[in-house]
Please model this.
Amino acid sequence: MVQLLIVYYSKTGGSRQMAEAANSAASEEVTTVLKTAQKAEPKDLLRADGYIFCAPENLAAIAGMMKDFYDRSYYPALGRIEGRPYAQMVCAGSDGENAARQTARIAQGWRLKEVQPPLIICTHAQTPEEILADKTIPEEQLALCRDLGAAMGAGLSMGVF
Model:
């Protein structure tokens, strides 16, 4: 059975909501595994047929816990997941581009196939209080996350990637 792995990290809830939205739509098409970056392991990557990576951008970079997942998984998966499709989602305060570039570089090293551009959801949080506050992603933006999940699930299910 085809399996989609969704790995996410979320401190204030934004990325979690995005990952859950993608998971809910993808699970209608394929078997999904939704794991936090802290709990995801290299064996999860090896078992899956495709991936969605979702994390916040912190200080213009991948959130540390997501980077930790990549650090723990990179070499055990290297040369063993080539050609598999992936997509990514970034929850950002104002930009998100650098975190997306960093994830794309890691995926390039794994020789993964990007199947759609990064989805960056901007919360416009700029003050320390706004940045650290729990997030609520608006429904219209969660719909974009569901669209991404549905597209990944359908593509994997039909074998088009």
Summary: The first strand starts at residue 3 and ends at 8. DSSP finds six helices and seven strands in the chain. Residues 9 and 55 are 5 Å apart (CA to CA).
